[in-house]
Design a protein that fits this description.
By secondary structure, the chain is of the alpha/beta class. It has 13 helices and twelve strands. It has helices at residues 43-46, 48-51, 54-63, 90-104, 116-127, 147-163, 167-177, 180-183, 192-201, 206-217, 244-253, 271-274, 280-288; strands at residues 2-5, 8-15, 18-25, 32-36, 65-69, 109-114, 132-138, 232-238, 259-264, 318-319, 322-323, 328-330. The strands form two sheets. It has a ten-stranded mixed β-sheet, with helices on both faces. The longest helix has 17 residues, at 147-163. It comes from Glycine soja (Wild soybean). This is Protein NDL1 isoform A. The chain crosses the membrane at residues 103-126.
Length: 336
């Protein structure tokens, strides 16, 4: 089955653990970049801010064909998955990705994931190293849930089970995704990106979200395998993200020769939506290590919050794997 979405073509692919939706944008002859969203989200609610940013879109679509993978039952207009179907584990979801790659005849791919999606893609990269060129992870997870997260997820699971996508559940999810600056308060209205996300959450079917939540809440700790992960890894995290410490921990477990951390100030977990411009220049330098580049007409964009002078000089030093990436921080003004 195929549908057209804003120039992309949707494919419904039957895999060993259910049907998965993949929306493809761009020239299939170009290298592949696959994306995987966070809990209760799909490409529209998790990545549209990044891909609607002209400079980022030019960088990504100039170099890649984009394959947006949705967790089972999270695509636009998805029907409820039968409650009797077995709930896939996190490892099942990682194995599902290899079936997607084989369906399209893809070799090694670039991967971009957010929080739960970042965990799935990291697990995929550990299991299928030869199929991953690099990882771009936003507010990633690598440890098993802490007692606090486990309990919080159980509360959300009970809300989903008894009340569906109710207002309280959506508030819990929005706190997971966004900083308090954009969520608003009594005096300040919530931002348009939060309003749009709230509406898109209304479309999710309770059983589909619950299945993904259960898979993530039972995830194993993959910390010990991170040192053996030799593909280059770029990690973004907002300093207001509830998973900020998790991202710092994951960075400490990765091989420092092949990894870098970018902390985005005044931002929550979904940097892709809240401050996509903060991702632009770090991604540019990351891709330069692969011989990729951004079209020159956008090279001096005044809209980017970073400039080369903000970046550590060591970032520009060529090494065997390309460019040496150093931990850097971005400071992005909230003023419009």
């Amino acid at each position: 089955m195929e549908k057209i979405y804003l120039g992309g073509k949707e494919h419904h692919i039957r895999t060993g653990c259910g049907i998965v939706s993949v929306i493809v944008y761009g020239d299939p002859d170009k290298p592949a970049l696959i994306t995987y969203p966070d809990l209760a989200l799909n490409y529209m609610s998790c990545f549209q801010g990044l891909f609607f940013c002209p400079e980022a879109a030019s960088l990504l679509l100039h170099n890649f064909c984009i394959y947006h993978i949705s967790p089972p039952g999270h695509e636009l207009g998805a029907a409820a998955i039968c409650a009797e179907d077995p709930v896939p584990s996190a490892e099942d979801l990682a194995d599902q990705i290899i079936e997607v790659l084989n369906y399209f005849g893809l070799g090694a791919v670039m991967c971009m994931g957010v929080t739960a999606g970042a965990y799935i893609l990291t697990l995929f990269a550990m299991k299928y190293r030869e199929r991953v060129l690099g990882l771009i992870l936003v507010s990633p997870l690598c440890k098993a849930p802490s007692w606090t997260e486990w309990f919080y997820n159980k509360v959300m699971a009970n809300l989903i089970y008894f009340y569906g996508m109710c207002g309280l559940l959506k508030e819990c999810l929005l706190q997971r995704y966004f900083s308090k600056e954009v969520r608003g308060n009594v005096e300040v209205a919530e931002s348009e990106i939060v309003q749009a996300c709230r509406k898109l959450l209304d479309e999710r079917k309770r059983t589909n979200v619950l299945r993904f939540l259960e898979a993530i809440n039972q995830r194993p700790d993959i910390s010990d395998g991170l040192k053996r992960l030799k593909c280059r890894t770029l990690i973004f995290v907002g300093d207001s993200s509830p998973f900020h410490s998790e991202a710092l921990y994951m960075t400490s477990k990765l091989d420092r020769r092949y990894s870098a951390l970018v902390e985005v100030q005044a931002c929550g977990s979904m940097v892709t939506e809240e401050q996509p411009h903060a991702m632009l220049i770090p991604m540019e330098y990351f891709f330069m290590g692969y011989g990729l580049y951004r079209p020159t007409q956008f090279s001096d964009s005044p809209r980017s919050p970073l400039s080369p002078s903000c970046i550590s000089p060591e970032l520009l030093s060529p090494e065997s794997m390309g460019l040496k990436l150093k931990p850097i921080k971005t400071r992005v003004s909230l003023q419009v």
